[in-house]
């Protein structure tokens, strides 16, 4: 399945999303470092280090921090992130009292665009933000093909992300390049589907997808 | 395919969406009246009459008017719509200069909820608002199964809509009841995907769908 040579990848965020991606990317043969605030305080399946070291030693940075905290976490790391590809899987939502997305934190724009604006020397690519975390590294387990929507301004960065997605099990036909980073407005808005989908389906793997 | 007895249905809106639905519902054996502002000025595939007559003579009203005009069109018809089911397929978007959805007209709520609030004696059901119009009456033509998301507060109204969807070719497994009308916030937000999907895919039949 591996179509690329090994890439150095930092995964920021050690919640379910980050842990799943770090494990899956390492299993695909990449050199993964989990960037966490306090390395050593918890057991991880992959190497963990502080965030600065993880970024410094990696070419591809995966943002799996909560989307409503991402800007404040990453804007100060502009120099460290320069020249790197930032694969952003997060959604910036306002949580309801039940802990589920109740609205969009940036309804007139997208977190993807705000990140690209704040990090002009970094190549931001948005993808994998329209599914339950477990699908990100196991898309073939669904009964119908899912879609990985991809948004980003840099063609080379999107090509790299596409090969990484393929390493995670994404068939090339399931990867849909929507265009520039502004198209993340559409995929981020789909986060508003999550509460009702979980209510209707239960906590099962799902991916918002385009049937054609 | 017809699982219900014939229903009297008014379709409001004679654009591509309304025309497609009116023709498809008539072909499924229902008594369809297209409600238009100026009956007789254009050729239609089904009976056309003025909007008031179409509503008066029908049990199920399909709203296929442009979503950014729907509230002003329907709020004044509150008495005529009382006791009826309103199947709303519209999306209320702010159009960009290219004529495609550039934002949501009601970003903090949904048109479905605003209609239900304005028409308390009408049973509002939102569905079919997440696909190209041609898929609404030909869902089986896609290569993978699409989803018809359904939102509404009234269980009986949603049951009626489900049977009408089945008459249009929707497999029962493809119809997903999301819950109350407030869940239309999620499906309406997916309208923001339309410009980039048309850009990426071209003008081909598509439906935003949940893979699981």
TrEMBL record, chains A, B:
Gene3D superfamilies: NAD(P)-binding Rossmann-like Domain (3.40.50.720). Pfam families: F420_oxidored. Keywords: Membrane, Oxidoreductase, Transmembrane, Transmembrane helix. It comes from the Bacteria. The chain crosses the membrane at residues 189-211. Residues 8-91 form the Pyrroline-5-carboxylate reductase catalytic N-terminal domain. This is NADP oxidoreductase.
């Amino acid at each position: 399945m591996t179509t690329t040579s090994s890439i150095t990848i930092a995964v920021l965020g050690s919640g379910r999303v980050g842990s799943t991606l770090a494990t899956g990317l390492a299993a695909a043969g990449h050199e993964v470092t989990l960037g966490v605030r306090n390395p050593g305080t918890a057991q991880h399946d992959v190497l963990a280090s502080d965030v600065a070291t993880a970024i410094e030693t990696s070419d591809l940075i995966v943002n799996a921090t909560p989307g409503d905290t991402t800007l404040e976490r990453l804007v100060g790391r502009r120099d460290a992130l320069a020249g790197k590809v930032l694969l952003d899987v997060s959604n910036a939502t306002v949580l309801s009292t039940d802990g589920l997305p109740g609205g969009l934190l940036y309804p007139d724009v997208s977190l993807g665009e705000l990140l690209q604006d704040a990090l002009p020397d970094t190549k931001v690519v948005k993808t994998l933000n329209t599914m339950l975390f477990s699908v990100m590294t196991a898309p073939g387990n669904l009964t119908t093909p899912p879609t990985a929507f991809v948004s980003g301004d840099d063609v080379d960065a999107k090509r790299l992300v596409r090969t990484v997605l393929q390493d995670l099990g994404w068939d090339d036909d399931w990867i849909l390049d929507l265009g520039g980073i502004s198209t993340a407005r559409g995929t981020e808005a789909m986060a508003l589907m999550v509460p009702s989908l979980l209510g209707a389906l239960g906590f099962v793997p799902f991916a918002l997808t385009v049937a054609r």
